[in-house]
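pasting for ref
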Amino acid sequence: MFAIYNIQGRRFRDNLEKLQKVRQVNENEQATLHENVAQDETLVIQGASAQDRVEMQSAKGVQAYRDQLHLNQRTPIYHVHQLMSHPVVTIRLDTPLEEAHRHFQTHGFNQMPVLDPQHKLVGMVTVQGLLRLMTIDQDEVSYLADKSVADAMTKEVITADPVSDVRRVAKVMVEYHLDGLPIVNEHDHLVGMVTRSDIMRAVMNDPPLSLWT
């Protein structure tokens, strides 16, 4: 399940197919996926004979081989709440630009969710968004007067439910060119944040990330 939030609050909440109708993706920018890549995938274990490999291709043989090597089997990651970062570092809607810049430098992030005075999600602000409202002359940084995070943030933000399928979250991030996605529950509470880095770490480490089952 995905949602869209703006300064007025939540304006949409439904599945991926409905999201794609509300926020259409340019067909030229959609990800190109190769089908049936693993159709003829074969298990090969270095040093094993042909007869051994045939045996190991059976579920029983693979399990016996794993047990023999004392491999640690873990439950695959299916839902985004299993890999999201939390608690989330956020920034206030009315934060002055200079303070916001320091906030980014302190935490080392490239983006942050923006909350209103009622602690509801209303947008996303990035370092690039702040830079558009700054002027840098050599080492001196100046900020546009009377501007705040509200002037630099993205006015609409796409979010996902904690139990959203990781594959669908990854698809949304690719198709809408997003570096991160806030995770918001059914009560409109921000409960986490998932970034491309979170997904890459899950791909590299155990437990395995289920992106193709």
